[in-house]
UniProtKB/TrEMBL annotation, chain A:
A Pfam family that the UniProt record links to this protein: Translin
Protein function: DNA-binding protein that specifically recognizes consensus sequences at the breakpoint junctions in chromosomal translocations, mostly involving immunoglobulin (Ig)/T-cell receptor gene segments. Seems to recognize single-stranded DNA ends generated by staggered breaks occurring at recombination hot spots.
Species of origin: Dreissena polymorpha (Zebra mussel)
Protein name as annotated: Translin
Residues bound to Mg(2+): E128
TrEMBL record, chain B:
Species the sequence originates in: Dreissena polymorpha (Zebra mussel)
Compartment annotation: Cytoplasm; Nucleus
Pfam families: Translin
PANTHER family, alphabetized: TRANSLIN AND TRANSLIN ASSOCIATED PROTEIN X (PTHR10741)
Annotated region (Disordered), positions in chain: 1-28
Basic and acidic residues bias: start-end ranges: 10-24
Lineage: Eukaryota, Metazoa, Spiralia, Lophotrochozoa, Mollusca
Protein name, per record: Translin-associated protein X
Amino acid sequence: EIRTIVRDLEQSAREILTQIQTVHQSDGIKCVQEICNGITPLFGNIQKGMQILAGKIPDSQYYRYSDQWRFLIQRLAFLAAFLTYLQTESVISMQDVATLIGVKVLREEGFHIDLEDYLMGLLQLASELSRLAVNAVTAGDYGRPMRIAKFVGELDSGFRLLNLKNDSLRKRFDGLKYDLKKVEEVVYDLTIRGLKPAE
Amino acid sequence: MADRKKRYRNDKSDHKQDRETKQDDVDESSPVIQMFRTFQKILDEKHDKHERIVKLSRDITIESKRAIFLLHRFKNVNDSEDIIQQTETKLLDLERSKFKDVAMELQGTDPYQFLRAYSPGLQEYIEALSFFVYLKDNTIIPLKDVQARLTFKTDCQTVNKDDSEGSTDETIQTIQVFVPPSEYILGLADLTGEMMRRAINSVGDGDLNRPFEICAVLQEVELAYSKLTHSNREVNRKLTVLRQSLRKVESACYTLKVRGSEIPKHMLVDVISKSNAYASADFLDECVVEDD
């Protein structure tokens, strides 16, 4: 039963993903605002779906079934973070992710998002942004990679404050330094060719 | 940017030095950093709690195994009263100390969140406890009795916030180590292994009836567990072991029945062990190879 609901939500998440990834295209990077506006209503479906899911889980059994929706929640956290980045170029807070997806933050409040899932979403965002940096240059936007470098650098500093266990989060975090390296290479390429835009 | 990379490589050296260097170089005023500092605290607390429960679970496993060794020396209710007494004490101590500590750790958390941390200890304990109850009362302990043994009352003093004098209220809270039915079932499956050992050992002790009793019990249990195979992967694993145990006991009963009168008592155990060795090797075969 839970699996059916999760599958529906994954479908909705896929729709958001395909739309939001159009920013990687050359014309996409110019109409970021429009893309964001198109996506925001889609999150409404997510919220409704989450309500249904939350209704199926009795109070003290969240962790009994949590493996069923872990991947989904991580994906949704990533999408929410990506959307917020495109709109405001800032790091989305856990509270905002929760509101956007339609869940709570603390276990006591009900069906909630785990801190680890939110962090996974942020790491997925870093990978996506390293890809965006490359495509931004191709599309002619030379300023964005600079800002992405600062953004991802901040994420990296933040993550390095954490003491992680050897779990999937740790493995994903290890990938973060390669994402950061990629973005810094883009910045380097632009700088030495004098393509860096004036501050 | 290059400095940050250098710092990362140095992080691998000394842990404490790590945290101090990080604090100096990091921009504390950044909201992102502040956010991550909170995350650090939350994650550390969760990991530490998990580790504490795992340590307790390991201690529980060791004590339970010792209890089981003790119980294997039990002959029958008349001769071995002190073994029963010792085991009772051991189990009670275990409950009052380690399990109570686990219950304290688990207070206020979702029952399933840390289950994997204490699951091994819990299953070993259920194995020991159910073996104890079986030897003492010749019954299988029901789940609610197991849960009752792992439920504790604590005196908890809470300060009355409304009262200006700051008086305290004494409330009795009930905390417990949650035993999900799945853990109970898995623990009981381990019990069958011990019963198999007891059946074989009985022959050495001279009690030639007990293997047949135990055989009957194991057959019932095997039928019951066969119905559960679709729910849980671990049940399947335990069921495989259970079937091996059952085969050993059945083959021992066969040997007793057919050749019990021919072979001198002190050799019976050897004969049974040898035929069991064959049985384990040809696990997939239907027929048991007899040793001569």
